[in-house]
Amino acid sequence: MTDSYLYPTERAAVALMERGIAGPVVMLNLLRFREIADYAGSPARGPAAPITGEAAFDLYVEETLPLLRRSGGELLFMGAAEHWLIGPEAERWDRAMLVRQASVEAFLAFGGDPEIRHAHAHRLAALSDSRLLPLAPLA
Predict the structure, then answer these.
(1) Are 28 and 76 in contact (CB under 8 A)?
(2) Most buried pick, 69, 78, 92, 119, via CB within 10 A?
(3) What is the pTM of this model?
């Protein structure tokens, strides 16, 4: 069984804050979907009939995009992914996203919004694994 990463650790959150990023931050998201979404952790949020992990993630995006914009953020890019051109042959991702927030503080506030937490049921049902890499401008 391989590790999956769906939540940030406290250590990672502290390290992000300690970077002292001033101004905008772009989050690189790499996403691997479950074949069938798993709403066991929040059955009340699940659809009446089973759906794919990809469809569940699309529900997450639909619910969170207005909240992202309200927080001053934007979805810069979302696209299909699969295998690396340069990278481990066995590693694959289904989707990649670039999300910009005005600041690390805005990103953390967005993540703590109760409406976002409500929408997270779709994200958790959708994903079997993910990566989130904060990117700061060089200049």
Answers:
(1) no
(2) 119
(3) 0.92
